[in-house]
């Protein structure tokens, strides 16, 4: 079974909620639960798109 490339390291969290989702994703990856890690990254992206002003959104999304 081929392993996929690891996702890029996220930028430093801009708020407590971002930090929480980032930490949960990293913990899930470390446990080998790739599905849960993906879920946490999706929730992180949704949170960033819905709740952050333009100034703190991820690069490339401005």
Brief overview:
With 62 residues, the chain is mostly helical. Helices cover 55% and strands 0% of the residues.
- What would the average pLDDT be, to the nearest integer? 78
Residues in helix, % = 40-55%
Uncertain regions: pLDDT < 50 for 5+ in a row? none
Shape: elongated
Architecture overview:
The protein has helices at 16-31, 34-51. The chain is mostly helical and 62 residues long. Helix 1 runs antiparallel to helix 2. The longest helix has 18 residues, at 34-51.
Core attributes:
single chain, 0% strand, 2 helices, 62 residues, mainly alpha, elongated, 55% helix
List the helices and strands and how they pair.
Layout: H1 16-31, H2 34-51
Helix pairs in contact: 1-2
């Amino acid at each position: 079974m081929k392993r996929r490339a690891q996702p890029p390291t996220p930028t430093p969290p801009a708020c407590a909620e971002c930090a929480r989702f980032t930490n949960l994703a990293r913990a899930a990856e470390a446990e080998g639960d790739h599905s849960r890690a993906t879920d946490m990254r999706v929730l992180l992206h949704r949170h960033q798109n819905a709740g952050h002003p333009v100034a703190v959104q991820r690069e490339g999304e401005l």
